[in-house]
Amino acid sequence: MSLKPxxxxxxxxxxxxxxxxxxxxxxxDVALFVCCALAIVPLAGLMGHATEQLxxxxxxxxxxxxxxxxxxxxxLIIGLIALSKGLTDVVKASITGSIIGNLLLVFGASAxxxxxxxxxxxxxxxxxxASMSSLSLAVVALIIPxxxxxxxxxxxxxxxxxxxxxxxxxxxxxxxxxxxxxxxxSLKTHRQLFRGGLQSGKPCSDDEVSWSRAxxxxxLIVATALVALLSEFLVGTIESVRAQLGLTEVFVxxxxxxxxxxxxxxxxxxxSALKNKMDLSLGIxxxxxxxxxxxxxxxxxxxxxxxxxxxxxxxxxxxxxAVAVAVQLAFQIGGDGETNWLEGVQLLSVYLVxxxxxxxxxxxxxxx
Amino acid sequence: MSLKPxxxxxxxxxxxxxxxxxxxxxxxDVALFVCCALAIVPLAGLMGHATEQLxxxxxxxxxxxxxxxxxxxxxLIIGLIALSKGLTDVVKASITGSIIGNLLLVFGASAxxxxxxxxxxxxxxxxxxASMSSLSLAVVALIIPxxxxxxxxxxxxxxxxxxxxxxxxxxxxxxxxxxxxxxxxSLKTHRQLFRGGLQSGKPCSDDEVSWSRAxxxxxLIVATALVALLSEFLVGTIESVRAQLGLTEVFVxxxxxxxxxxxxxxxxxxxSALKNKMDLSLGIxxxxxxxxxxxxxxxxxxxxxxxxxxxxxxxxxxxxxAVAVAVQLAFQIGGDGETNWLEGVQLLSVYLVxxxxxxxxxxxxxxx
Amino acid sequence: MSLKPxxxxxxxxxxxxxxxxxxxxxxxDVALFVCCALAIVPLAGLMGHATEQLxxxxxxxxxxxxxxxxxxxxxLIIGLIALSKGLTDVVKASITGSIIGNLLLVFGASAxxxxxxxxxxxxxxxxxxASMSSLSLAVVALIIPxxxxxxxxxxxxxxxxxxxxxxxxxxxxxxxxxxxxxxxxSLKTHRQLFRGGLQSGKPCSDDEVSWSRAxxxxxLIVATALVALLSEFLVGTIESVRAQLGLTEVFVxxxxxxxxxxxxxxxxxxxSALKNKMDLSLGIxxxxxxxxxxxxxxxxxxxxxxxxxxxxxxxxxxxxxAVAVAVQLAFQIGGDGETNWLEGVQLLSVYLVxxxxxxxxxxxxxxx
Lengths: 368, 368, 368
Description:
Three copies of one chain form a homotrimer. The first copy, chain A, is an all-alpha fold.
């Protein structure tokens, strides 16, 4: 995933963010939040690019695995920091936000951008369908704990916390094992399906300058450290920014944090669509959703158990409706292997409607 | 949309209805209701035919736009009259009733009628899929305000009326803008997809006698005025008819009013299927649903704000389930470009099951 | 459906089960339950095989009808016995369990087994889609009574029992009539679609030794009688087994009873997939689900009315979610006519997640 020259300039916000953190100025937390967000974007892009370069050096198999595991490292890091501060709801909201952001915002923006130049945008149907059914599995897994909670609540007054945690943990294990199967499928047994680019995670685009292994490793380590630092600042400001702008925690997680964590990928996907390379675009969008649902979410849940504050896979009704709707629409629109500008508009419209829903929703005072 | 000779005789009910309104007779309101219903059917057909003829005179682009905008004029008029009398629930029920009536009753009756004569009925898959994804967007838009209401209710005791109205208004704007994009798509950029007949609204069938422009305009104005008058009578009787027959407001809206408003189109669709012209049939069914969801519903909501009694897009759970089910089934059955008599039976069965649900449901005393 | 030599040996459990019933031993009810379960499996297989042989003798039309009607005789018998003992919830749970077991467990195991040997498994798309839309109709029919119950509860305090029973009865009639249409479609008007094997009920596989008519009838009668006897024992132990193993009635119905009733078919389906005969595998899986939903469920409901303890088609929320999810996933994965080992893993994972849900759910003390 190459970082277009136009995004490198955002790196200037890295030192600006550090400075703002040490010397708070007028506009305090909101300014710091914005600077951190703007700084994370190019860093996430550099992490992705370094991972890809390293993968090229180490061979297709390992490369694919690296891309698949570290492709969403930025979201993973932000999620870990948020978990350590106990912001479980923001973490869960950013999981759903990443999924619907990729399936609706990225897919839609790509279809609209590409469709404005090309009458029909075609892509590999089989690879698309293989990925979509994994996503459907993920949606089911995300729905079930909430169905359990609703049903158990209606049936008995006893505490179900232990059962809920066990159920969520078991489901997370199933999702993780499925992810490993997806890797085996796309990197080993059915590799030829994904030659166009829809690899489980990151598509391979070979049109940038090659980095040396040393350079890739150094960039990866430095960028990761900086993303961790800036995430620490960012998550620290979420509470006051939320209060100042009058937004709810869920809106911040679903829309804002999700967009920040995925922004670099978004730009690459749209750029690819403009060149009629929809396989690449969809590879980023669908692959990223897959990683979030089958890898990042389970890993965050496992780690939350290590932190001693176990997370469950129980989401709110609006989050579940949003994810189910996004997967359903993406399947309907993408399942036939072709798209156009109107379908892009429809996907973006659905994203807008969901964003409006989360914007207007009052905060949840009784969150568990 | 030509009016088959067999429907012209229903025009006799126009004077009958006027007479019944002035001199109520035994069987009073029910007889008046039935006569108005029977009289509106041929008038709606004449309105459609006049619109089509006018469109032919004014060129394909304007013609398509006219068909697209005035194709469901009858439902729009009935809806406006009902809104002015404060029957908001009947209006919303007739919106959902029109959608499921077109997707299940018309689609099913056409598939059954055509399938009884032809082993396989084929139609343009791409046009079908383009329309279906617009409908999915509409279903999402119809679901979201109710999701908001359920969630907001569970979270706080405060009044959410203002937020609900804003959310519904914003969503209506999104739907309306999408409708304009659909028009641009089907009338300008991807016109060739719809040559078979699935235009956004009304298919063009060129096998009737051509009318002069003056004749078309006169017929359109007279028919529209008569439909407005008869709708005024019809809506005025809904309350007492409902009470006399022991039906609920929702059943009257979803099944009865929806069928009345769409009856002329239904007959044309079934006639076309009998001649194995499924593109025409589905053009009417899907196109009509699209117009109701993306044009008529938003326009009625905007006008309700002008009336000072703002409508929301909040529907009851059974209505949401009905619409979601109808769109899902129509997508499954129509998405492969071919159908047969069994699929027609299945669509009609689902419509029957939904009608049974609305028939048995008790009235909603706490409707907001 | 041939009974592989490897299952005949299970017949030894028939006399063992009878003995255990007369002389209870240590491990009492659980041992009896297990022996009955193991004994029913080969008997169900023999019933299926005898039905098939009889069908071959009596001609394709009658044969298909026989297969279609008696293909799930084992589940029908178990259901009747359970109904007679008033275990309505177990009956309903085993209906949903049979549907999700066929669509997820059988389909998934077949895809995984076949996919481990063949890169791509292909099957007839049209037959698959025709069956899937019937299943979607069935899911709708199963959802509607519960939607009615939820809505009616929220609206009024009055008793709705009579309306619920009438609604369920009417829906059951619609389903049954649909089943007859499905039979006419697959056995008469569109027979050629199903030549590969996806008959409405049981696929015809001609590679076993032919039985005489007399032999087939005798085997059928004897096996049916034994299944009835063993079901009587089995259902009698459900309560105490459930209590001893700490399982809920719903889990026993959805997972355990459903697997027992379908085990013979499961093995045939997996065997067929190993020979890359996916049409046969899916014929068993989808056809069996269809029979359960459109034939067995309505018939059990009609008979419950004769017993004077009318059953409704009202299911719990987890059961509805499970069935909707199973049909949706099977449609997504099967709708394109090809599958692979990863899709098999996904289907099995969803089944596992649903089983975990039912395992952890607390019992429903207020079941109606």
